[in-house]
Amino acid sequence: MMVDLAAFGEENFSGKTWVNAACRARHADDDTTTADKYLSDLEMKLQLMAENLNSTLEEQSAGALLRVPRSLRDIGRLQDDAVSLRSTVSAICVNLKQTEGSSAESVAALARIDVVKQRMEGAYKTLQDAAGLAQLSANVEDVFASGDLPRVAETLAKMRRCLEVVGEVPEFATVKRQLVGLEDRLEGLVQPRLSDALSQRKVEAVQLLRDIFITIGRYSSLEQQYSRVRMKPLRRLWEEFEAGKGPNAIGKPSIGVTQGNERPLTGRGTPEDGSVISFLDWLPRFYDEVLLIFELEIKWCTVAFPEDYKTLIPRLMIENMSAISSSFIARIEATSDEISGGSKSFSGGNLMDRTAREASGMQKGETTRLGTLIALHNTTGSFSKNFQHLLSGVELAEIAQVVKAIYSPYAVYKERYGELERAQLLTELASLDLRGAVPRAVGSRGVELSETVWRMEASIPDVTVSLEAAVERCMSFTGGSEAEALIHTLDDVVVHYTATLHDILKSLRAICGVDRAHQDVSTEVSSTKRDGKIGPDSAIASANSTDIVPEEEEWSIVQGALQLLTVADNIGSRFSVFEASLRGTLGRLGHRLQIFSVLALMEEAGTIQRGLGGEDACKFLGLSLLDPAILRLVDAPEQSKRLANLLEQAKDPGFHALPHASQRVGNFMEAINELVYEVLISKVRSRLADVARMPVWNAEEEANVFALPSFSAYPLSYVTAIGEYLLTLPQQLEPLVAGGTGGPTVTENGVDNADEAQYFATEWMFKVAEGATALYLEQIRGIQVLSERGALQLAADIEYLCNVLSALSMATPLVLASFQACVAAPRDKLPELAKKDGGTQLDLATVRLVCKMRRVPLD
């Protein structure tokens, strides 16, 4: 039994509380120890502990009392020492003040003397430099005549130093102008020799001439001359394409360069079959030769320019790319026009397209302008990575400038990416078979409807694949820097696609007979009114006059319309998945841009030092700053801000990447549901076209000998036709239960989705049945006069419809049940029925309407 002494030291300690807690801490299952014994043991333990504490306190107190006198003696001694130290320090301070006062004047005098001495020495040196400058100016021509260029350079350097010392003295203004001319003259003498030495790779001569340029402060001229000389083989290599030669195969490929599936070359660099190689095939070989040239150049420069090659090599590549940039763009344009124009001949079907591509050596996706640009851009990207490996040890800032120069020919196309992507997507949409429905003769409209719906459904995955490919192209070509243009382009293209589907859907209305049915029914009703023919036969004939289509074709049209629901489900689900994938892509791009923002801030703050190598910087920052997309964003701050705002909005779960497209897809799905409902309800609408004007409702009873009922014991044909249609509707909705594709759908988790499809089909069945009931109620509300015979007939018709609704597991609406009860009741019992119910089980408005029809007065 342990006792925690810390609880006794608390300010709010309570003895009762502590004892109760100790009792609760005792094990409840410990039957061997009673509460009294437990408390006795606890009391004994506390008493022993108190005695131990008391003895310890007495011992500590005694020891403390013994140490107090010794401590008092130590304190007194320290006080005496402090007083003595204070007096000593005061005496020292007095001596320092006296010394400072006497030596301040001496120090000031010495300072004035030192200033005079320095000025005299400066004047002496200036006079010496002025005398030397005059002498150097007089003897400089003799030095030039000697032909010793290093000595000439040294002489000019001394003249420059003397001029800097003399300053702006009018007497030496002519010497200053003379010096500039002399330096230009020396540079003119050195440049031919430097060009010759660079061309013949003479290391010692190059180093000597380099020292001359550095001596006279013309290092920039050295860089220019080096680039001018070493660019000649690169320019010849580039111009060989125009001459139809292609790059000559020299040596083995550079390290890290992938040759790919290239056609073999002859000795002249052209294919063995003698055909002219395309720029798309020639560019990788050109890059291979450039890598080989630079690999050799770097090896030579490390010997000839051990301190300068890290700036000379990047400058050479930058100037080379600047020189060929316009020609590079012209070749890209020519290649794009050639390939995109040639691809038009591949439009004769998939097999012909594939065969023509294989014959031309082009890969899939390279037959468009944007595909050609991406293929060239990927080739350039491989070259850029390989070239960066050659620049190991070069400063990060220099490598970044080289990367920008390598990708510079593509800058104009990246700015136009949205336009190029839109043109390609619209071209791909135009290649799809999205023809509208063509009116056909009776018996063939179901086939036309099914084929049109199949074309719509088949286009959805193709369009989705095209949209996903557009996202990949944006990331591959622009690295995501043109994500804003991509979003706008995808939005516009999907809007264009849904507009096309809307037009096709409009053409299907005539095929389905929806628009025609409305027009025919209204025409027949007006003609019936005009002719005054109101009779049982004419009314039923008027109601059924639209049934000029065979019943088999009617059901085929219904099946074709139901396939539209599969189209709506596919476009909704696929578009949702694509938009979610697009948001994920934007999220990853947002993380990348966030790192870019950190890099930009670090660069502005000077954290990234110029001496930090490329590989080390990449490891330190966690991201390569040599990404062309990031370099492009660095140079376009406004575009970076807009892109950052877009990616920040994409973090919101409710963000719509394609807002207009989302709205248009939703509208299209609603239009499909509306058309399907119109098709499913059209037969009901045609059967009920003129039910309210049927003469059977106000027909009088006929006299008969046997007093038989004058009404029909069976419902009329119009309601039986509606009932049979509603009862066969579940069979027509079976494809929805099967997923609309001939088999059950499967969720993402692999679970059968048949229950959801069953619910969807049941929902449509209820919707059609409710619509039919509403149309029927609308017609019977329009009956003007209802005789006893008509009331009994209407009761039989309503009862049949209620039985149909019950068979479909639907509850009978209150209004319809009220109609049935009121028309089935005897005429004289209607007032009593209305009073007895009081509106609890019957609709009072319906009761009053039936009383009005049957000419029954109500109080």
Using brief descriptors, characterize the structure shown.
single chain; 4 domains; 29 helices; 0% strand
Provide a brief overview of the structure.
The chain is mainly α and 859 residues long. The protein has helices spanning 15-25, 35-146, 149-166, 173-199, 203-215, 219-239, 279-304, 309-342, 350-360, 369-390, 396-407, 411-415, 417-431, 445-478, 483-512, 514-531, 536-543, 551-605, 614-621, 628-634, 637-649, 659-687, 717-732, 734-737, 754-781, 788-807, 814-824, 830-837, 844-853. Helix 16 (514-531) packs parallel to helix 22 and helix 22 packs across helix 25 (754-781).
Can you put this structure into words, describing what you see?
The chain is mainly α. It folds into 4 domains: 5-176, no CATH class; 267-412, no CATH class; 418-662, no CATH class; 690-853, no CATH class. The protein has 29 helices and no strands. It has helices spanning 15-25, 35-146, 149-166, 173-199, 203-215, 219-239, 279-304, 309-342, 350-360, 369-390, 396-407, 411-415, 417-431, 445-478, 483-512, 514-531, 536-543, 551-605, 614-621, 628-634, 637-649, 659-687, 717-732, 734-737, 754-781, 788-807, 814-824, 830-837, 844-853. Helix 6 packs parallel to helix 8 (309-342). Mean pLDDT is 76; it is low at 245-270, 343-365, 516-547, 605-623 and 740-752.
Which secondary structure elements does this structure contain, and how are they paired or packed?
Elements: H1 15-25, H2 35-146, H3 149-166, H4 173-199, H5 203-215, H6 219-239, H7 279-304, H8 309-342, H9 350-360, H10 369-390, H11 396-407, H12 411-415, H13 417-431, H14 445-478, H15 483-512, H16 514-531, H17 536-543, H18 551-605, H19 614-621, H20 628-634, H21 637-649, H22 659-687, H23 717-732, H24 734-737, H25 754-781, H26 788-807, H27 814-824, H28 830-837, H29 844-853
Helix pairs in contact: 2-3, 3-4, 3-5, 4-5, 4-6, 6-8, 7-8, 7-10, 8-10, 8-11, 10-11, 13-14, 13-15, 14-15, 14-18, 15-22, 16-17, 16-22, 18-22, 22-25, 23-25, 23-26, 26-27, 27-29
